[in-house]
Amino acid sequence: MGDDMDKKKITNMEVKKKNRNEVFRYICKRGTVSNPDISYNMKISLPTATQITKELIAEGLLEEKGELQSTGGRRAKALSAVVDVRLAVGLDITKNHIALVLTNIVGEILKYERIHQPYIPGEAYYREVNERLEHFLDESGADRDKIIGVGISFPGIIDMDKGQMTYSHILGVEAVPLNAVSAFFSYPCFFINDANAGAYAEGVHVDAAERFFYLSLSNTVGGAIFDGDELIQGKNFRCGEVGHMTVVMDGEICYCGKKGCLDAYCAAWHLSDAADGKLEQFFCLLDQGDAEAAKVWDSYTDYLAIAVNNIYMVLDCEIVLGGYVGSCMGTHLQELWDKVAGRNTFGEKEPYVKTCNYKVAAAALGAALKVIEMFVSQI
Questions:
Q1: In this structure, what is the dihedral angle of CA atoms 243, 246, 251, 257, given to the nearest 10 degrees?
Q2: Are residues 236 and 190 in the same domain?
Q3: Does residue 346 come out as left (phi exceeding 0), alpha (psi in the -120 to 50 range) or beta?
Q4: Is 150 exposed, middle or buried (0-12, 13-18, 19+ CB in 10 A)?
Q5: Cβ distance 172 to 186 under 8 Å?
Q6: Are residues 229 and 325 in the same domain?
Q7: Are 88 and 149 in contact (CB under 8 A)?
Q8: Could you report the per-residue pLDDT of 297-349, keeping only the tens digit for each?
């Protein structure tokens, strides 16, 4: 009986946290709202909406700004977020670079910087990254007392239950304790997989966040499912790892040691290697009608179309292309869609593949947004 009561309390607390975060996101997206507006559009009771906004006002995250226009009856109080009350930092760590973002409490990017910083496992690396972060904040003029934390995204499997990055091929590490990384920074840290972070930025910072699959096409291929304002993590925190989905039986050898994985055909380097290691240059060549670039792109999109069709057949949802390739693809998306449509059994006419909204800093922004979510949930 006692255990059941404890579980019920935990469940109620989780629901309360989820509702609070969803209400805060809604207000951030809409700008100015009222409690009746929140209640109606989010399908929660008016007393619940009012209680949540009272808590957010008490914490200084919301403020009343007069009254909204009324078509009849009593005017509702206008509520909006206090955008500069808190700040969050996002840090995206990759094989050769780090990306830093500073955001306000509603997730607007105040400053962004990408720095060449090759990953070298060890304390010296994290000390240098922290120095870069502190210099970044100095240049921004940010009030340090307002910073609620640093979200750090890694290209690896982040197991929050074990508190470690269990594996990252691209960084060449495994079983990295997250608390050991946190120790080098002056602020509370939150860790997230880079594809999950990109999906989170895409989902919570745009309207109509229904289910979609975020396909990250960078130095490795990854993915994430965003469903109903939250990430689907999976039993082992590996949900969405489509880079190791087989697209060719007994095909090319993947870095994981298996054959025929999507990563062996659609990692970004397959394109950049055809342009002196520069992905942007590859797409410039493609735009100029370069025959060799066109041949490489044709092969690349053959395999990518297989993957996109497979994902769509399983999830039946929109697919967002992110990462380095998704950010650069631009007008060449149509060429991919033509191949995807040719494979689709059901003949959908409306494209269900699109490129990402955030062409730069998606993972860093998503990491910062997760910090904001954690902060709001703890109120």
A1: 60
A2: no
A3: alpha
A4: buried
A5: no
A6: yes
A7: yes
A8: 999 999 999 999 999 999 999 999 999 999 999 889 999 999 999 999 998 88
